[in-house]
Amino acid sequence: MLKVGVPLSSKYIGTISKLRYFMTAADKISIGNFKGKPNPETGNYTVPFIEGDGVGPEISKSVRTIFKAAKVPIDWVNCDIGPLLINGETTIPQTAVDQINNSLIALKGPLATPVGQGHRSINLTLRKTFGLFANVRPAKSIPNLASTYENVDLIVIRENTEGEYSGIEHEIVPGVVQSIKLITRKASEKVIKYAFEYTRSIGRSNLIVVHKATIQRRGDGLFVQTAQEMADKYPDVNLKLELIDNTVLNCIMNPEKYADSVSVCPNLYGDILSDLNSGLSTGSLGLTPSANIGETVLYEAVHGSAPDIAGQDKANPTALLLSSVMMLNHMGLQKYADMIETAVLTTITSGKEFRTADLGGSATTTSFTKAVIENLN
After folding, report:
1. Looking at the structure, do residues 292 and 321 belong to the same domain, yes or no?
2. Across all residues in the chain, what is the average pLDDT?
3. Which of 281, 314, 342 is the C-terminal boundary of a domain?
4. CB within 8 A of 195, min separation 6: which ones?
5. Across the strands, what pairs with 264?
6. Is residue 104 part of a domain?
7. Stated pTM of the model
8. Is residue 152 part of a domain?
9. How confident is the model at residue 119, as a pLDDT?
10. What is the sign of the dihedral through the CA atoms of 308, 112, 326 and 58?
């Protein structure tokens, strides 16, 4: 059984029955390496499940139903992270903190931040609470699913804790607001080291540091300098530097250029670039999974909560399902990861009647779930 830090991307192999969107690799990444143990009485792992808002409960139900049909040895525990405002700071309940820390892993649906209640982003609160310093976002074309490009295979690793997302801002005088972009050597070293090791572990040749140090000379300059100072420790990985505007243009003109590379970015650039890559690969965030890396690993669908279709049985559960596949690979449960992944991809590529409306199809959440279960083997 492979013991790995995070599930890793690989090329499609063989026929549809052999497709693997996210596969593990026998790497040596220590941070994020799953150390949880199953319940000795049941043999099952306990995993907190943050169902989320909007369509979250519906797509979460789909995941639970498919996992039950696949007989995955996981016992879900409902994890309520309803935000609390304590002394002006947004926090999550201690019960939820304890659940996730004890399990060292969690699965999360989409969350919406309450508007006009003084809360900051709940997603940001989670990253801060659990020290989730890196977000790993693969974006890969799916055969037989029409998109703008074919053969896209992009990976972005995003610094997850600071940059513009630090939330440091104030009004200097009425009508003049200052927002502070925070870049520290400590956080930069953490995510860049992880990116080097990740790149090495999946056998790619290049690590591209995406930046705007021509303008943000001190902030982005520190991020770039940190990467340059660490490069000697990874002689098998070619370090490249690229301005964010050039990266965006190059991805749109020729995404295949990055097939042998991993990109690592400060927070805001990573957020924008990873969404762009999802659009290039599949045309939909509804197919995009991700992993947030720390001592605990939080897997999540990256799309929004879609309140406009909540409760209508229209939501696409694929992003959350593929995130759960990444989670299973990380846990060493690769047999189940392969089974569910193949069933999901088979369903999507079987025709429009099996795809939800966001993919131009006519399937409901319920009928899509049923089709995936029928394709389990």
Report:
1. yes
2. 87
3. 281
4. 134, 157, 207, 262, 264
5. 157, 209
6. yes
7. 0.86
8. no
9. 54
10. negative
pLDDT of residue 88: 64
DSSP secondary structure, 320-370, as one string: HHHHHHHHHHHTT-HHHHHHHHHHHHHHHTT-GGGSBGGGT--B-HHHHHH
Q: Say yes or no: 203 and 331 in one domain.
A: no
Between 29 and 338, the more confident residue is 338
Range of the domain at 106: 1-147+283-377
For residue 241, what are its two tokens? 């530097």
Express each pLDDT in 286-314 by its tens digit.
898 999 999 899 999 988 899 999 999 99
Q: Which two tokens stand for residue 280?
A: 């290039």
Q: Could you give the CA distance from residue 121 to residue 116 in angstroms, rounded to a whole number?
A: 12
Question: Which stretches of 184-310 are assigned E, i.e. beta strand?
Answer: 206-211, 238-243, 261-265, 289-293, 297-301
Number of structural domains (the chain) is 2
Does residue 84 have a pLDDT over 90? no
Burial bucket for residue 92 (CB in 10 Å: 0-12, 13-18, 19+): buried
Indicate whether 127 and 178 sit together in one domain: no
Domain check: are 202 and 241 in the same one?
A: yes
- For residue 158 the two structure tokens come to 């995003």
For the CA atoms of 7, 8, 14, 19, the dihedral, rounded to the nearest 10 degrees, stands at 40
How many Cβ atoms sit within 10 Å of the Cβ of residue 55? 30
Residue that terminates a domain, selected from 259, 281, 303:
281
Query: What number of other Cβ atoms are within 10 A of residue 180's Cβ?
Result: 11
Tell me the average pLDDT across 222-240.
97
Looking at the structure, do residues 74 and 57 belong to the same domain, yes or no? yes
* Cα gap 262→260, rounded to integer Å: 7
Average pLDDT over every residue of 82-94: 74
Looking at residue 74, what is its pLDDT?
97
